[in-house]
């Protein structure tokens, strides 16, 4: 008897054959033992090369004491592969059907009027602060705001066009006193000529929450129409926030808080009204009783006075009937 050793999938198998057996006889034995059809068998034999079906009448003695590697797939493996292939084909068919039946995404390329509106009612320029670390990251953040589907929809709806959207230096517009720290998160100059947003953290080591900054932008866009923080301003501001949240398909059209919108506290304020020509304007008025433009320090002092006044009125009328000017 001849002992033929071969390796298949890393395992060694031994086959005993008669001295007058041929390679075809070996192939039949392989089919019976390893369930690999003859047509799928390939024998890599040292110094002889590859032998494959249909095997000739080569004597089995030619393979004695030679390293043999069997290449071939068993019937079970073939069935498994076929099943996997059929499942993959079915899955692809389902996906193709779903894509075919799904509503097509709206594209402004097929609507010349919308394309014109999107090019007109937008931010004409984006500018990070080049003196701060990695300005390219701030530019990406500003670009994200510009391309935000909710912001784009709101700007078209209200026909807002902003000349420049830029970032604010974290060290700017920050005041600390015994009442706490006030950080202005955004400014709007000349009703949309420039909008400035505080993107970075105070330590310059990261960026603030995106949705908070986006709400700040909604707030500043409302200043394109209304200067003072009166009821008309807040109604428009919250309307813009709702429109942005509804049109934000990336978040499923839902806002955080189920319709609750963030109004800034005294410690962290969006702004102190609009500002014109590089000088701040308190509550949209912008001039003192003497006619002089208020300085930033005067504005902050006046805002502090207003807060103290409201606190005194609240203490004087514990039932909450006291009335006074709204805060920043």
UniProtKB/TrEMBL annotation:
The species this protein was found in: Xylaria bambusicola
The WLM domain, residue ranges: 114-309
PROSITE patterns: UBIQUITIN_2, WLM
InterPro entries: Ubiquitin-like_dom (IPR000626), Ubiquitin-like_domsf (IPR029071), WLM_dom (IPR013536)
An MF annotation (GO) of this entry: proteasome binding
Domain spans labelled Ubiquitin-like: 2-62
Biased composition (Basic and acidic residues): 302-318
Stated name of the protein: WLM domain-containing protein
């Amino acid at each position: 008897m001849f002992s033929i050793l071969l390796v298949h999938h890393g395992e060694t198998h031994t086959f005993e054959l008669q001295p007058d057996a041929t390679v075809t006889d070996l192939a039949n034995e392989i089919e019976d033992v390893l369930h690999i059809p003859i047509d799928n068998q390939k024998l890599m034999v040292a110094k002889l090369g590859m032998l494959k079906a249909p095997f000739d009448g080569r004597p089995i003695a030619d393979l004695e004491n030679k390293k043999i590697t069997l290449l071939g797939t068993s019937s079970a493996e073939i069935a498994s592969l076929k099943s996997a292939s059929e499942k993959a084909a079915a899955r692809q068919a389902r996906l193709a059907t779903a894509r075919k039946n799904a509503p097509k995404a709206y594209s402004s390329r097929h609507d010349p009027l919308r394309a014109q509106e999107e090019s007109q009612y937008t931010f004409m320029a984006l500018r990070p602060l080049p003196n701060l670390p990695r300005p390219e990251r701030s530019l990406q953040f500003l670009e994200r705001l510009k391309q935000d589907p909710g912001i784009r929809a709101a700007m078209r709806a209200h026909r807002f066009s902003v000349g420049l959207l830029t970032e604010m230096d974290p060290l700017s517009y920050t005041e600390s006193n015994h009442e706490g720290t006030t950080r202005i998160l955004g400014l709007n100059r000349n009703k949309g000529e420039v909008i400035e947003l505080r993107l970075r953290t105070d330590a310059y080591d990261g960026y603030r929450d995106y949705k908070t900054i986006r709400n700040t932008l909604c707030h500043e866009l409302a200043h394109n129409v209304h200067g003072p923080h009166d009821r008309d301003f807040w109604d428009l501001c919250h309307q813009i926030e709702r429109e942005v949240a509804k049109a934000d398909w990336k978040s499923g059209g839902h806002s955080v808080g189920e319709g609750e919108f963030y109004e800034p506290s005294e410690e962290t304020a969006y702004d102190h009204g609009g500002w014109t020509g590089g000088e701040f304007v308190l509550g949209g008025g912008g001039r003192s009783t003497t006619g002089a433009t208020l300085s930033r320090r005067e504005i902050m002092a006046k805002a502090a006075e207003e807060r103290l006044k409201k606190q005194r009125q609240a203490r004087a009328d514990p039932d909450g009937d006291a009335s006074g000017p709204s805060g920043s």
